[in-house]
Amino acid sequence: MKLTPxxxxxxxxxxYALTKFPVLEDAITHLNHEYGGHLSFYEExxxxxxxxxxxxxxxxxxxxxxxxxxKNLKGNAFILFRGTQxxxxxxxxxxxxxxxxxxxxxxxxxFNKAFHSMLPQIGPFVRSLPPGTHVHCLGHSLGGALAxxxxxxxxxxxxxxxxxxxxxxxxxxxxxxxxxxxRLLNDENIFRAYxxxxxxxxxxxxxxxxxxxxxxDFFLPSPGLIPWKTYHDMALxxxxxxxxxxxxxxxxxxxxxxxxxxxxxxKSKAVIxxxxxxxxxxxxxxxxxxxxxxxxxxxxxxFTATTYFTLMDQLAMVLDRGIKxxxxxxxxxLLLVKKIMQFLGMTRAPDAASVTHDFLRNxxxxxxxxxxxxxxxxxxxxxxxxRGL
Length: 389
Known about the structure:
7-stranded mixed β-sheet
């Protein structure tokens, strides 16, 4: 059994009752009323995790539920997470570190620590489920990131093959995690939905990538070119998927960017602004150019690095080695550098001699910092509304 978009979105929205009601008992009463005996919410099956800012301040808080389906949901189990007000701090911190997932692949350490703080509850719950139980991992925003790590853990350490549903999730780990998680779960069991102008799915920028590692995701149109605070709100995600099937949503996905399309964008004379489209193109262009440089220069990136700065240093090293990589008479690296400089509002035209390893490293860090600034502004506006995270 797989949940419909409406079912998955409803659960991912309703879990925010934990933050909307001043009294916990009122939140539980509301949830039990909404689900009419199909799911039972009570304090004993509540997930209590440790959360905080970049320094991982140890604050114990209600983070979701472990649920057993009843009536027409019998035979189903749900691991349900909510988001957090600390998301902006976690996602926009350049000093972030990485740690291994259940399969030993590098993921965002803040997400990983939050998940592991709940593992003493999740582990016994999942291992007690009888064979054949349908396990569903769900969440929005940070909750989507936690659901992704949880789904990989369930598949890697138990007999169950879970299904994963996320809305507006940030990127969780590096390519090794994405590929391993996709192999373990099969991309047909992964339902990642995102609005076009929700900034959270764009961060952290590459080399963090989304799961699944294939092009199978669930794009939801939203207006404009800049990130809108509204389009990270889980209530709007619920509205956007209402009365749609997963197949309906998948049909709305625009074509994937091609290699030739990326090269044409790099060569184009149009000056880019600080828009969602520019962030998407820059991310794809960095991936493309780095892959070309690794093919040409024979240098690879060690994706088991433990800090963001280590990754940026390796990335700069690969680009520096590939600076002479030509397409026709134009260096792909120089074209990429020019686009990044345009995005950052830098006007000096680069040449091969000035594009050193240190220059590249600093430019990449500045790019990440600027995208983080855009993200923080959008997330802060959402938090000011008191809803959605």
